[in-house]
Amino acid sequence: MINAAPSLAQGVVASIPSPPISSFQLGPLTIHFYALCIIAGIIAAVFMTNHRLTKRGAEPWVVIDISLLAVPLAIIGARIYHVLTHFDFYFGEGRNPLSALYIWEGGIAIYGALIGGAVGAWLGCRWTGIRFWTFADALAPGLLLAQAMGRFGNWFNQELFGLPTDLPWGLEIAYPNPAWPVGLPEGTLFHPTFLYEVVWNVLGVVVLLWAGRKFHLQWGRLFGLYLIWYSGGRIVWESIRIDPSDIFLGLRTNVWAAILGVILGLVIFFVQKRRHPGYEPSPYVSGREWTAGQAVQSQDTDDFVDVSEPPTSESVEGTATSTPATK
């Protein structure tokens, strides 16, 4: 990734090149690396969340049922948030309002995805009987991993970079480029904010996994810690980004969103700690429990007989175990 050639303008001895392409053709289709990064992140988050939920005693792959609602609403929320925070891009003078619907042209926002995804997850949890906060805690590390993987899409698109820099990890951006700041000479290097966020998010995955195990964070407290960690880093990255953004009281909209994210995370963490000092009894709400079992075919008939019985014990973490009945 490191290019030893000197920068054209800065004269530094190393830099990070940007990929020469952002998409490729597959028959009549144009496949964008940005989309592949997001899809890969979603898949990784689903697998990690499934593993964590199953360890708690949930039905294997119940996360798929929840994702069927959460993922589409997250995408819709991400687009709506982007459009509202870049209103003049779509509804200003000479603009085409219908372009607000052209999501394939780019423009989604993570905080909008969190809002839309939370609504979808809540609906999915009511559908499946999974406790919402149990799901949120199970999702938190995988969500950070997905966000880290998705940021590589910005690298492929050569977008959302930071201020000019002469540091050896400065990011090369092709010139000319629609995102190139006016007045800067060709060869200028920029802070690779995508890489900063990747490193921060991956480190956050480790921190969340450790903290969740060490302190038994349940009832949404691990998700609260996720909001604090991610949003705290986002305040810094957003402060050095130079892409166009609406400004309120001297701060970018996403900085304000990140500040609110930290506050919300703190509220969730401490309120839930006070409301629920003990451990979750089950990943399911009362009356909606799922019992692990198996169906075996009777040797005398063609009927399938359920040989499972309710769980006999629960671990400290709330994971239910069951002993098959002998028949």
UniProtKB/TrEMBL annotation:
Pfam families, per database record: LGT
Gene Ontology terms for molecular function: glycosyltransferase activity
EC number of this enzyme: 2.5.1.145
Compartments where found: Cell membrane
This protein's record includes keyword Glycosyltransferase: yes
InterPro entries: Lgt
Record flagged with keyword Coiled coil: no
Coiled-coil regions listed: none
Binding locations of a 1,2-diacyl-sn-glycero-3-phospho-(1'-sn-glycerol): 151
Keywords assigned: Cell membrane, Glycosyltransferase, Membrane, Transferase, Transmembrane, Transmembrane helix
Sequence ranges of Polar residues compositional bias: 310-327
Topology term for the membrane: Multi-pass membrane protein
Residue ranges, annotated region (Disordered): 290-327
Residues spanning the membrane: 31-49, 61-81, 101-125, 132-150, 194-212, 219-237, 249-271
Domain of life: Bacteria
Described purpose of this protein according to its UniProt entry: Catalyzes the transfer of the diacylglyceryl group from phosphatidylglycerol to the sulfhydryl group of the N-terminal cysteine of a prolipoprotein, the first step in the formation of mature lipoproteins.
Family statement: Belongs to the Lgt family.
Record protein name field: Phosphatidylglycerol--prolipoprotein diacylglyceryl transferase
Species this protein is from: Microbacterium gallinarum
